[in-house]
Amino acid sequence: MAFDLPKLPYDYAALEPYIDTQTMQLHHDKHHAAYVNNLNAAIEGTAFASLPIDQVIARLNEVPEEKRTAVRNNGGGHLNHSDFWVTMTPGGSKEPTGELANAINTKFGSFDAFKSAFNDAGVKRFGSGWVWLVLDKSGNLAITSTANQDNPITDGQTAILGNDVWEHAYYLKYQNRRPEYLGAWWNVVNWDVVGQRYAKARG
Ligand SMILES: [Fe+2]
After folding, report:
1. For strand 141-147 and strand 129-135, is the pairing parallel, antiparallel, or unpaired?
2. Higher pLDDT, 14 or 203
3. In the predicted model, what is the mean pLDDT of residues 65-78?
4. 128 and 43, same structural domain?
5. pTM for the full model?
6. Å from CA of 81 to ligand 1 middle
7. In Å, how far are 72, 75, 151 from 64, measured between CA atoms?
8. CA of 106 to the centre of ligand 1 (A)
9. What CATH number is attached to the domain comprising 118?
10. I want to staple 81 with a disulfide (CB 3.0 to 4.6 A). Which of 21, 32, 160, 164 is the partner?
């Protein structure tokens, strides 16, 4: 069974003006599509081809060595982008609510302090990668970042929310101004979905 490129749950223009239409078209139809195609080419014929993508990335060290780098990069790209699209929306809650709001306030002091720390980690990720809010192995919230298309699940952490800091995610509109992109992106985070992901991760 091959992996499929998921459809965007909104129009390409839906996240304007924070994320522009052309970036969404290229990011989804070209970049994400390439990860899916390359993942399928790499994983075809292995036992991992029929697993959910998060399980593949959680078990990367079991993937045959000659295919592992391709699966790490392209499978990670597929997982990261699939989660990325659904944690953005033109509508929905603009702040966390309920248990997640309480946990963020307890851990980081306030929602604003959390956003600041997340933005800072995104700015400091050198080169291409992602910045994350995760549930760590002890069940606590933490901010982290990864290089390339690595996902925290490979290190036993559960991603609650991630932002893509590859230049392909922002360069057309923001050029070299990654901090501006990171700041604007909060306008499109779907806190309803993020709250559900947190509840699920907590079990
Ligand atoms: Fe991306």
Report:
1. antiparallel
2. 14
3. 98
4. no
5. 0.97
6. 6
7. 11, 14, 19
8. 31
9. 3.55.40.20
10. 32
For residues 104-120, average pLDDT: 98
| Vertex 83: Cα angle to 73 and 3 (nearest 5) | 60
- The pLDDT of residue 92: 75
Region 78-85: mean pLDDT is: 98
- The answer to the question of residue 3 being in a domain is no
Q: Are residues 65 and 114 in the same domain?
A: no
Ligand 1 center from residue 2 Cα (angstroms): 21
Domain boundary among 63, 86, 109: 86
Separation CA 86–CA 157 (nearest Å): 19
Neighbours of ion ligand 1 (CB under 5 A): 164, 166, 169
What are the tens digits of pLDDT across the range 124-161?
999 999 999 999 999 999 999 999 999 999 999 999 99
My answer on whether 82 and 122 are in the same domain is no
Residue with tokens 């290229």: 26
Q: Which residue has the tokens 């992109």?
A: 181
In the beta sheet, which residues pair with residue 142?
134
- In this structure, the answer to whether residues 104 and 193 fall within a common structural domain is yes
The number of distinct structural domains making up the chain is 2
**What's the DSSP call for residue 96?**
-
| Closest among 60, 62, 81, 64 to 72, alpha carbons compared | 60
Q: Is residue 93 part of a domain?
A: no
pLDDT of residue 1: 61
Residue span of the structural domain in which 79 resides: 21-86
117 and 168 belong to one structural domain: yes
